Every structure is written in C-alpha cells, then in structure tokens.
Amino acid sequence: MTLTSMLKKNEQDKKEADRVKREWISGISHDLKTPLTYISGYSSMLMKEVYPWSEEERKEFLSIIHRKADHLRELVQDLNQTVHDQIPLQRVEMDLIELVRRVAADIISAPWAADYFLTIDSMPEQLRMNCDPKLLTRALRNLLINAIAHNPAGTEIAIFIAQREPKMAEIRVEDNGVGFDETNQSHMNQGFPSSSRSGLGISIAKQLIQSHGGELSIRSQRDKGTTITIQMPTESI
Q1: What angle, rounded to 10 degrees, do the helices at 55-83 and 200-211 form?
Q2: 116: left (phi over 0), alpha (psi -120 to 50) or beta
Q3: Which residues fall in a coiled-coil region (predicted)?
Q4: 140 within 8 A of 103, measured Cβ to Cβ
Q5: By three-state DSSP, how is residue 118 classified?
Q6: What is the 3-state secondary structure (H, E, C) of 8-71?
Q7: Exposed, middle or buried: residue 136 (CB in 10 Å: 0-12, 13-18, 19+)?
Q8: Is the entire prediction scored with pTM above 0.85?
Q9: Nearest to 179 by CA among 151, 203, 148, 149
Q10: What is the pLDDT, as a whole number, of residue 1?
C-alpha cells in the first residue's frame, strides 16, 4: 500500500468514525428527548392555574412525571454502564417464557400500544434459564418499545421462543413494519444506534444480551419488516 493510499484510507476511516459518532449522539438525543417531553409537558400543565385540575388528575400527571423520570434515570444508567462495559449481573434461575409473557403483557397494556398486535409463540411450555431477570426484562422492553415506536399503528409484532440446543435459548421478535435499509442494519448489528430507526434501544439491548454471553442479530428489509434474533445460553458461562 502506497503512502497516498494509506492517507486516503485513514481519511475515509476518520470520516466513517465521525459519521458513526454523529449517529450515536443523535440516537442518544432521540431516546432522552422522549421522557423529557413528557416531564416538561405534564409539569407545564400542572403549573397553569387557569385549568382547575382535580386532585385525581394532578395525581395522574405526577405519576406520569415520576415514571418518565425513572425511565430517564434508567437510560442514563444503562448508557453509563454500556460505555464503560460495566454491566453487573444478578443471576437467578427462572422461566424465560414466563418472563417474556410478563414483559409483553406490560407493554401491550399501555395506552400508546393499543393499536398494535402482539402475539407470543413458544415451543416448550417452560424454559428454565439462569439470567438476570431485571436486565433481560429491560432488553426485551427496549426491543418491543422500539418495534412499536418506530412503526405505524396496525403493525403486527410476533415473539417466538424456542430451545435450539440443550443449553441454548432463542428469542425472535418479528414485525411487519417499515423496516430499514442495509446501512442502518449493518450499523446496528455492530452495536451502533441508527438515528432513523432505533436510537439507544437496540444498542443497549444488544449490550445486555452480550453481558449474558448471548448474541443479538438484526435482519430487516425496507417496507417488509424487521426480525431481531437473540441467542443466549440457559446456564451461566
């Protein structure tokens, strides 16, 4: 390789690194903006004395503000841990299928998810797994919220759970939504958020799955939908 070609390649690598950094920052901004919008909006409503809010309404607004503040705190905590590669695990043995059903029920019961269709299909009735339920719940929530937030009403989201090997579990989250192009797909498979599609959600989920010794991969096609596949060991490694 000549000096000229080396300099050219270094310049291209620098431009690519700068572009990825911009997308990363854009993704962070998007995910942090959502809870901040709720907090700002509902607090502003409470401060307007022209509206005679009832005590029940005030409690509901404060409850929303509190939940969104917790969400914001979790995002910052997740971001700090993933940046420093410090994700402590508190493993317990539990039923993976029950955990997935709980997460799905919690998501689909939210008012903002009312116009989406979510199904779960599991091959075994029970799948025992040694994992950190809090972190795995957070990863699955990120994936389901992402599938809802970035797709139009009426999108169908399906979760498939299977045991592929004696000690390996697989979770697939499929949607028939808008999908995304190969460039964004490649970036997310590398762990970088896409400003146009996923924000921090998928990136953090990938880190949480990897902390369990698992892998998260993405396959998508524009206007056809997205499939996210998680494969992780059922026992500690």
Answers
A1: 60
A2: beta
A3: none
A4: yes
A5: strand
A6: HHHHHHHHHHHHHHHHHHHHHHHHHHHHHHHHHHHHHHHHCCCCCCCHHHHHHHHHHHHHHHHH
A7: buried
A8: no
A9: 151
A10: 67
The domains of the chain are located at 3-83, 92-233
Tokens of 46: 């409470």
Q: Are 139 and 189 contacting, i.e. CB atoms less than 8 angstroms apart?
A: no
Residue that is written with structure tokens 């999108």 in the block = 155
Here the tokens at position 130 are 């040694």
Fold (CATH) for 3-83: Helix Hairpins (1.10.287)
Q: Please report where in the chains the tokens 């490649």 appear, as a residue.
A: 186
Write down the CATH number for the domain with range 92-233.
3.30.565.10
For the segment 153-166, the average pLDDT, to the nearest whole number, is 93
**Encoded tokens for 67:** 């939940």
Helix or strand holding residue 233 (H, E):
strand 225-233
Cα distance from N-terminal residue to C-terminal residue, the chain: 42
Determine the distance from the C-alpha atom of residue 94 to the mean position of all C-alpha atoms in its chain, rounded to a whole number: 22
Residue 90: pLDDT band by 50, 70, 90 thresholds?
A: confident
Percent of the chain with pLDDT over 90: 32
Residue for token pair 């997935």: 100
